[in-house]
Amino acid sequence: LPFQDSFRIFVTALLRKMADPSSFATAAARVQHIHWNVKLDFDTKIIQGYVEHHVIFSDPENGPCEVVFDTKGLKISSVHLVEDGTPVTTLTYKVLAGNKKCDQLGEPLVVTFLKEQIKEDHVAIVRIEYETSPSSSAIQWLPPAQTAGKVHPYLFTQCQAIHARSMLPCQDTPSNKCTYSAVVIVPSPLVALMSALSTGSQDLEDGTIQYTFDQKVPVPSYLIALAVGALEKRDIGPRSAVWSEKEMVEAGAYEFAETEDFLQAGEEIAGPYVWGRYDILLLPPSFPYGGMENPMLTFVTPTLLAGDRSLVNVVAHEIAHSWFGNLATSKTWGHFWMNEGFTVFLERKILKKLRGSGCYNLAAMMGLKALEDSVNLFGMQHPFTCLCQDLSDCDPDDAFSSVPYEKGFNFLCYLQELVGGEELMNPFLKAHCEKYKYSVVESDGWKAFFLEYFQTKGVDKTKLDSIEWETWLNTPGMPHIAPTFDKTLINQAHNLAKDYVEANKKPAKEDFESFSGLTEQIIVFLESLQALQEFEGKSEEAKAKWRLLLDDINKAFGFNDSRNSEIRFRWCTLCIRAEEESIYKQTSAFLGEQGRMKFLRPLYRDLFKTEKGTPIALETFEKYKTGYHGIAQKMVAKDLGVHL
């Protein structure tokens, strides 16, 4: 089928689906296309303008002629019916009270139509004029002082999971995917970029610049993204470029030079890359994640700038999202593992293809350790340790952890081994993307597809019948069946750590000479030390012993001076847990240099647990919190038990 026909069929089918507990949108009407026309005001920290929604109604003759949008903290000024590009009729609307159990869900905006206002094809266009709040959870406004250049302000958005509703009225659910276009007006000389094709720019008489964008592939609302700043571009491949401030753009171009290799490896495994461009935006340090898979414009943290390309696995992960998450999308946040588990699965296949099986196995074992940490943090029986999660009356951000990533990855590894290995599983990944492209997927429907596919490929039915779907999908805790990974490099790192701790071997610089050269192996070594540290207990005697050992390790390897954020994070963790007070100042500085939640939350929690670290944690957060993204502020404040 042509793309337009297959998308129309998908939309029609979608209208019959159940609602998402994280959205107020209903199945009575769904959005097919969004046009966003706005102007940015950096002084007031407000985005003002309008959004037009092309809405299709499921049954306007017999059902309600209403469309429900998600909003959060928006100021609605008017709602009109649009005909031939012009607002012609004022529509009745009301903003209702939200969910008392979860104020993060915002408030539903209900717009009512008359039946005669809806066209024969069940489509109507509604224009909503509005402005955002300065405290919008999706929008990070940075003053010049918080940028690399220190001259111009900066803006970037982060809409995942349910923050798009604080940037524009929308049906803020992954179950509804639509195309979008945009007109964005910004102060000169700033550059605007979006998760869409840039179609032009024009200087306006008032000293602003108007940028236009078009995204022809349907996306969920959480993938609408905007960035504005003093940005420059460096091409790094035939379909890729790095964007950043001039102070960081060259470093980014060097660090991400392998992007085309990652793209080609992904295409070999998962099928055609449908998005055209794949650009990377290297953001200011306050970005709360390692990366965000915004289509055509991946957002990444500057904490990846290690100078040796050792941390670009994050880019491999975001590239993998081009197929899993962006092209084929989990229906709701309760099925988030179908985005992230599949993405990790493809990411590690890409790394295996380009860097060998050692890298793959190291990453898999590190992921298993991250999963154990998340399960222990939540508790073995916590429902957020299930692959399929009930997020009713809940902020999806509260459920965020490595569980959907790593438990999902381990489930897919188990299935791969069961059906006969990569030779059979890789073609299935292509079939998955082909079936669910431009659409959404949930666990039960995918289970039926998986079984049908492999039955037709001749996989023994008794094997398929042995899959314990209920246990994998709906039972909390660690995976009940652990796939087997090659542990050669892992054991090498474990054994060196044991030699230091249990055999009292004196650390020496040449001890790393037998390592693989992969940064991941050093990370595993540090994590092995953490595990041994935890095992030895938290007595004052044990902590004193560890402080001496860590001093010797630092003298041998210079971890205090490392600029690799992953190494720095784990080294600070080891020292804090040993109550090595000399690391507190370094940790505070690290927490002030970047806003990545992967590092912020564990370091703040560990620092807060120590007697002398508690006031430092609180003072550090008070000092740097305004430089963090709103999502990070919220989550760290919750960890520290403070109010914003």
Explain what you see.
The strands form five sheets. The chain has an eight-stranded mixed β-sheet with strand order 5-4-8-2-1-11-14-13. It is globular. The longest helix is centred in the middle third of the chain and has 22 residues, at 357-378. Strand 13 (197-203) and strand 14 (208-219) form a beta hairpin. The protein is an alpha+beta fold and 644 residues long. It has 19 helices and 22 strands.
Strand order of the largest sheet: 5-4-8-2-1-11-14-13
Structural class comes to alpha+beta
> What is the overall pLDDT average?
95
Shape category: globular
The tally of strands reads: 22
Mind describing the biggest β-sheet? 8 strands, mixed
Strand content: 15-25%
Number of helices: 19
Distance between the termini: 52 Å
Short description:
By secondary structure, this protein is an alpha+beta fold.
